[in-house]
Amino acid sequence: MVGTGAVVGVALVALGLVLTPGPNMVYLVSRSVLQGRRAGMVSLAGVAAGFCVYVVAAAAGLAAVFAAVPAAYTVLRVAGAGYLLWLAWKALRPGGVSVFDPAPLPPDPPRRLFAMGLLTNLLNPKIAVLYVSLLPQFVDPEAGAVWAQSLVLGAVQVSVALSVDVLIVLSAATLAAALRARPGWLRAQRYLMGGVLTALAARMLADRTRPAAA
Questions:
Q1: Structure confidence at residue 145 (pLDDT)
Q2: What is the largest CA-CA distance in the chain?
Q3: How far apart are CA 48 and CA 41, in angstroms?
Q4: Minimal CA–CA distance to 160: which of 9, 32, 18?
Q5: 77: how many CB neighbours lie within 10 A of its CB?
Q6: Which of 46-55, 78-87, 111-120, 160-169 has the lowest mean pLDDT?
Q7: Which of 211, 149, 214 is CA-nearest to residue 5?
Q8: Virtual CA dihedral for 117, 121, 123, 125, nearest 10 degrees?
Q9: CA end-to-end span of the chain, whole Å?
Q10: CB 14 within 8 A of CB 131
Q11: What value does the CA radius of gyration of the chain take, rounded to a whole number of Å?
C-alpha cells in the first residue's frame, strides 16, 4: 500500500515540474494561442496519453532497465539537457520569440495536434527523468507490489500535471493578450523562461545520481 508521505511527495514533485517551463508548456501554450482552447485541449489529450505510456513503463520496470544500463540513462540525461538548452536559446537569442507570442503557423488538424502532444511528452526530458530517477525513490518494496505502487504514484503525478495543464490551456490566450499589451513584460517573460530552462539543463548535466531500481 502506498503511504501518505509518498503520495504527498510525488504530488509536490509533480507540481514543481509542471510549473517549470518545458516542452509540454511551450507546446500547449503555442497551440492554445494560435488555434484556440479546443486545439489546446486536443493537444493536452496527446500529452495525457504520453503520461500513460510513462506510467505503464514505470510499472513494468523502466527504472530497473536504466539502473542496469547506466550509460543509457546518461545518454537520456544529456540529450534531454541539450533539448532544454535549445529551447532556452530560442527564447534568449536576438529576435527570439516568447512562448506567449508564437509566430503564426497554419492550423493543424486534431489528429496531428494529438500526435504532436503525445510525441512532445514522450520526448520531454523532465518527465523521463521523473519516472526513471525520482518516482522510484517513493516506492517501498516492503509496502506491497512495486508495480502497483508505481501505478498509483504515476496516477498521482498525472492528476496533478493535467490539472495544471488544463488551467494553462484555458488561460493561455488571455495571458498572451495581456502580455502583448505590455511589451516589456513579454520580453521579461522570454528572459525568465530562457533562464529557467538553462538552469534546469545545467542541473540535469550536473546530476550524477543513478536511477534506483524499484
A1: 79
A2: 56
A3: 10
A4: 18
A5: 22
A6: 78-87
A7: 149
A8: 150
A9: 15
A10: no
A11: 18
**pTM for the full predicted model:** 0.77
d(CA 115, CA 81) in angstroms, rounded, equals: 23
Q: List, in sequence order, the alpha helices (H) in the chain.
A: 4-19, 23-35, 37-59, 62-68, 70-92, 110-122, 125-129, 146-180, 183-206
Q: Which three cell numbers stand for residue 204?
A: 540535469
Angle at 55 between CA 53 and CA 57, to 5 degrees: 70
In whole angstroms, give the CA distance from residue 77 to residue 73.
6
Nearest CA among 24, 83, 26, 47 for reference residue 204: 83
Distance CA 166, CA 95 (A): 30
In the numeric block, which cell numbers belong to residue 149?
505502487
What's the average model confidence in pLDDT over 152-161? 93
| Mean pLDDT within 22-31 | 86
